[in-house]
What does this fold into?
Amino acid sequence: MLVVYMSLTGQTRKFVQKLPYETLEITLANAFDLEVHQPYIIVAPTYDVEATDILNDFIETGNNQAYLKGVCGSGNLNFNDLYCFTAKDLARDYHVPLLHCFEFQGNEKDVEIVKEKVNEIG
Ligand SMILES: Cc1cc2nc3c(=O)[nH]c(=O)nc-3n(C[C@H](O)[C@H](O)[C@H](O)COP(=O)(O)O)c2cc1C
It folds into this structure.
């Protein structure tokens, strides 16, 4: 499974590096012209919509939406109702499962949960 992510302060990057999968970082420089041709999940940090819009841009590039299998979120529980809203919104808007939400760079349990969820997707 390919893991597509963005990261502004490095927490999400640290999390995905703990997963045994190929990763692809989305940045302002590549969001509009990267096309994937294999199943992937997105791991999204949580920020204002303006900051995470590049994930929508990536999903809507070429045929990328067809390969999106699920979404995970990195956030901070102090934001209460807004915890991991970016990942929740992506899952809702693109009709894919919300696989897992974790705080910051996650812990070992979060890694295990995401691996299990990816195995379930196949
Ligand atoms: C300006 C700002 C706004 C944030 N807003 C939210 C939020 O609404 N909900 C949430 O769960 N986390 C929020 N966070 C926490 C980040 O999503 C969290 O620290 C995440 O691990 C950052 O990932 P990154 O280091 O890969 O960018 C916010 C952090 C900052 C700095």
